[in-house]
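Posted in: Structural Biology > Protein-Ligand Complexes

Title: Requesting predicted complex, zinc ion in pocket

I'd be grateful if someone could produce the 3D structure tokens for the following input. Sequence and ligand are given below.
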Amino acid sequence: MTAATKSWTLSVEQQELLIKSCFEAKEFSYTPYSKFPVGAALLTADGRVIKGACIDNVTYAGSICAERTALVKAASEGIRSFIGLAVTTNVAAPISPCGMCRQFIREFCSDEMPILLVPVDYYDTEKWNLKKVSIQVTNLGELLPFSFGPEDLELSRKSS
Ligand SMILES: [Zn+2]
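-- Reply #1 --
Done. Output follows.
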């Protein structure tokens, strides 16, 4: 399938896998300072799931978000092709990635790749029972319009 014809729609099974995985990822959040656990899960082009959790740091500035944790885990093992991302928090509303994570996602993911924002009460968590809570499906093109990305460095420039 060429890039031009690629469909960015996830199957119901792929969505459920990603959603369950981001909740599992959130369990390993380390948030003594922010008190804001976040879990993220990336689906790779070859069907693997890479999880990431929010990891606080006593310096605060050294903290890393769940989305970047997942991307760094994947990229540092040579995995650079993704077809979906899911993010959840402990908030009963869809929470979207911070600005820094949006730019980081831009490095490795298509503008059209689905990003699932999942409210905390999506599951009755003890039993992984689905509640009737809707997720928000978006993509990077919506979250980071008119973005600057790796291909922009390939544009011809005047020498300084
Ligand atoms: Zn972030």
